[in-house]
Amino acid sequence: MTITADGLAPTISLDGVRKARGNLTQARIRWMILALVLGFAAVGGRLVQLGMAETDTTIEGQTRDAITATRPPILDRNGLEMAVDIRVPSLYAEPRRIIDIEEAVTKLRTVLPDLDEAWLRNRLTGDKGFVWLRRELTPAIEEQVMRLGIPGIDFITESKRFYPAMNEASHVLGSTNVDNQGIAGIERHMDTESIALLQELGLARGNALTPVELSIDMRVQHVLHDQLTDAMTRYQAIAAAGAMMDIYTGEIVALASLPDFNPNDPASALVKDTFNRVTSGIFEPGSIFKTVTLAGALDSGMVGITDEFDARYGVRFGRYTIDDFHGKHRILSLPEVYKYSSNIGTIRIMQAMGKDNYRAFLSRMKFDERVQFELPEMRVPSVPKELSEVGAATASFGHGLSVSPLHMLTAYAAFVNGGNYIAPTLYKRSVADAEPLYERVIQPQTSAYMRYLMRLNAISTGGSGSQMNKAAQGYRVGGKTGTAEKVVDGRYSSNKVTNFFASAFPLDNPRYALVIMVDEPKAENPQSGTTAGWNAGTLTGRVVQRVAPMLGIAPDFQGLLDQQIVPPEVRRIFPEGY
Amino acid sequence: MIRRLNIFLICTSIVMLVGVYMLKFSIEGTAAERTALQIHISEQEDDLTTLKADWAVLNQPGYVEPIVRRHEAELGVSQVQQKQFGSFADLPMRPAKPDTAAMDALFLAIDAGVDPIDAILELEGIE
Known about the structure:
- Chain A is of the alpha+beta class.
- Chain A is built from 21 helices and 20 strands.
- Chain A has 2 domains: about 60-215, Penicillin-binding protein 2a (Domain 2) (Alpha-Beta Complex), CATH 3.90.1310; about 220-575, DD-peptidase/beta-lactamase superfamily (Beta-lactamase).
- In chain A, about 40% of the residues lie in helices and about 20% in strands.
- In chain A, strands 3, 4, 5, 6 and 9 form a 5-stranded mixed sheet that branches. A 5-stranded antiparallel sheet of chain A has the order 11-10-20-19-18, with helices on both faces. A two-stranded antiparallel ribbon of chain A has the order 1-2.
- In chain A, a hairpin with a 5-residue loop joins strand 10 and strand 11 (about 250-260).
- Chain A starts with 16 loop residues before the first helix and ends in a 5-residue tail after the last helix.
- Chain B has 2 domains: about 1-70; about 100-125, no CATH class.
- Helix content of chain B is about 75%, strand content about 0%.
- The radius of gyration of chain B is 40 Å and the shape is elongated.
- The interface of A and B includes residues 219 and 225 of A.
């Protein structure tokens, strides 16, 4: 048998012990490397997985930061808090961590019995990571719920807005919703300015924000609110409103409108008729508009302070005759036209000025645009673009056009401050900051005439402001009444009226302008009437009597200060001045 | 030699290990303390906001006025009237020279047990 080396026969090869061990080691090293690679791959993979995973930090679509976000405190001009943040616990659940839903529902309802059972069960079922159960609770309830020891139920501290003055400054402050965002008033304005951005960035969290200082004086605001509340019952009015402004800085010192709401309970703002009548209510201003007509006419130079006007007969326009309420029916001098609130006289004065000039003056006084102001609740006034003969005649005594009380307030402020229009503001502002914003609308001389006319109306016998002056003796208040008949079923009604009193004080050196409105008042007693002097007028007197000492205005009974503001020309017709 | 070195190294590592663990636990303790303090601070801040809100309520003119009205009769206070305000100009000027004779007479009278001011007050029915 021959042995052929055809490959079939196995070659016997014997490895040495060393080589065999070497091979085994190599195999082991390979396995080790594989194991290590797998191990590192697993770790690496997990890292990538963790890196990819997006942790849900939002609470029902909102970031946690937005929920705990704070708002800056709001202070009045003297540093008294008008709005502060308080931190309150809010109850939430993590349904995926709840073990026994039925038990949780029963236990929770022992502390919060007003939670609906079906709603709560539905809320706690499921695999969600976060659901609100009840927001803005008290620490006492937090304590009780924590004692129940339900797993998956916990609290988070939220910021809640609190308004210590309750209703008093409701229309100034506005309100915030449960997510601490401003929904009305200055709160809303602040959000549109800057805070919303800060909250979004999470910067407004926890840290104390710089307080916002308003121009409001809470003492004056309280008096105004208190007196308006009193007027609502005293005259059984459907609404009352008022605002006071610093005539040199444009700062609104007080602003109130009734019926109002409690900003701590934002739902109360939804009740009908709680809108801000000072800014978003537009009304026919009635006779307080005569001041505007006279200021325009005197400023145009076509009418002099001592001119006389024929008020013997009514003014005829086609079928209509415009007459005076309690007319004197004689020739009246300009101060008398103002004092007796003569419609005829005012029409003649407007006609002497010319209706186009008059319309141009209304534009100059910004009566056909919104007042530039911080509150978002504003309405565009309704003033005809062009005035017909009749339209101009009725407009001269405040009918046939509708403006907001804030328009009247800024106009009166401009008339007595030397003739500079200054847009009102709710933020604290100094005279130096306000001066660059001045817009000259009438000459200083006209402004001096207006001060005299307004004071004349208060102290002269037969003046429509004499009711007001009784209460505010010594504070040199002067102003104009306005009784505007309301349109009921397409006709002017004499029982339903909107009454105004627009004034300024102390007129020898004016500082403040004030507009008061009483809507649909009734006579206080059988001896009194329903015209503006009886309600809006006396109300103004009572307000000034209480606020003047707070604003540092000393009473004076000498009469010398009143004599100082009588223009020398007037002395020729009224030697005694008034 | 190497054996000794190894023993030394093992001992050192054990000591180091113990040290590191002690450090770790002490840091955990400090961290827990810190968290507790933070929670405490935040709780107190929460209380502070409530107290500030309370203070703001108590300071509101709208809160104070009803209290004043309630005690008006007892305290004998009423709203200030215009005629109650005065000015510095209304005050009389100081006399050029003190009236020594009158002063002496006054002091003598007081020493003697007669108080003229008291007499005036009684006359006016103030006391």
